[in-house]
Backbone:
């Protein structure tokens, strides 16, 4: 049988992360964050940046699409 690969999305950029790669961070309140790279981890945790402010994230593209269709 083939192994089932569970894909999760990066908590910052929204990119699909293959099983066995990336990093999982558990906050003290129990919330689980998945990161594909150190760049995403640092932007969210250390620098407290919002994903919608960066054009290279999926969240920005989704937010921009929402703004353009509703306003």
Residues:
């Amino acid at each position: 049988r083939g192994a089932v690969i569970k894909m999760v999305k990066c908590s910052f950029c929204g990119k699909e992360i293959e099983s066995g790669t990336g990093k999982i961070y558990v906050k003290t309140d129990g919330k689980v964050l998945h990161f594909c790279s150190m760049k995403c981890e640092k932007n969210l945790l250390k620098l407290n940046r919002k994903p919608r402010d960066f054009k290279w994230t999926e969240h920005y593209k989704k937010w921009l699409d929402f703004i353009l269709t509703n306003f």
